[in-house]
Every structure is written in C-alpha cells, then in structure tokens.
Design brief:
115 residues; two-stranded antiparallel sheet; alpha+beta; Alpha-Beta Plaits; single chain; globular; 4-stranded antiparallel β-sheet
C-alpha cells in the first residue's frame, strides 16, 4: 500500500472500560480499521487524564489505580478513507473525543525480511 505524502491522522479518545458487544471498544475499532483496509492502527493507553464524563483525574498509580484509563487509537490514511471509517464507527462511540488532522507522511514501509 502506498500513502500520499499528505495524509490525515484520525485520533480517537475513549475509556478503557468502553465496550462494543461485551468486548473492549478500542479492540473493535482496530479490527474494523483492518477490515476497512486502512493503513494501520495503534492503541495507546494513557497514564493520566480526564474527559467529558468526569473531571476526576484518572491516573495509573498504586494508591488510586483507575480501572478506566484513557485509550487513544491513532490511524493514518487518506482523508476520504478516514471520513468513511469515522461514519462507520461513530454510532458505536457513546462518549469520548475524535479528532482529524493533517499529517505529513515521511514514509510508510514494511520490513521485507522474513521473520
């Protein structure tokens, strides 16, 4: 797959405890991205944050270990593909934040050696 030099970054902020059909929502989103043929997806687990549902700061500390840490899913592809993908997942995200921004793609390549 070849990506243009100017692509877009779709960033999705949700909670770790968010679900889709009893599975983690972030996991469902990544599987949907693969099914839709997007270039790739990465899930990052936040160590601290708060959002629209609560202004209580959730943090990954032993004394106040939160079970609903922020999860960030990042996907880079063309604007058109990301807009189509967003329309697919939007009804399934009950709470969170989604951003779409320009991204300058320096390279997108796979390792050609067998592993």
């Amino acid at each position: 797959m070849k990506l243009p030099e100017e692509g877009y970054l779709l960033r999705i902020f949700i909670g770790e405890s968010d679900k889709h059909e009893n599975k983690p929502l972030y996991q469902w989103i990544v599987f949907q991205a693969r099914e839709q043929g997007l270039a790739g997806a990465t899930v990052l687990r936040g160590t601290m944050g708060y959002g629209a549902n609560t202004h209580y700061i959730r943090t990954f500390k032993i004394e106040s270990l939160s079970e609903d840490m922020p999860m960030i899913i990042e996907i880079v592809d063309t604007k058109e593909k990301l807009e189509t993908f967003f329309a697919l997942i939007d009804p399934h995200i009950k709470a969170g934040l989604v951003t779409l921004e320009k991204a300058q793609i320096k390279f997108y390549r796979a390792d050609k050696t067998d592993k």
